[in-house]
Design brief:
86 residues; mainly beta; 3-stranded antiparallel sheet; 3 strands; 5% helix
């Protein structure tokens, strides 16, 4: 039948933890439940694969009620493209 096994790619670490970039203290300290609105906002970036490459979705969320306060869709991960003014 011509059947063959198909090997998956080996996991490769791409994060470089040996850098001299500014490190910020963890002021949230894992306190994700908030008792007041608009006290703690968090943000994240995810990518969406499309035919031409990737789109990057940046969101800002209020931890009190988990509502999205703002979002941006961009074609690159530069600071100018992923920074939101809410």
């Amino acid at each position: 039948m011509g059947s063959r096994s198909r090997s998956s790619k080996k996991f490769r670490v791409t994060t470089d933890s040996r850098h001299n970039y500014l490190l910020i203290d963890n002021v949230l300290n894992w306190q994700f439940k908030q008792i007041e609105p608009s006290k703690v906002w968090v943000s994240g970036i995810t990518y969406i694969a499309i035919k031409e490459g990737f789109l990057y979705l940046t969101t800002i969320m209020d931890l009190y009620d988990r509502k999205i306060m703002g979002w941006s869709l961009s074609t690159s991960m530069t600071i100018d493209d992923t920074t939101l003014l809410v």
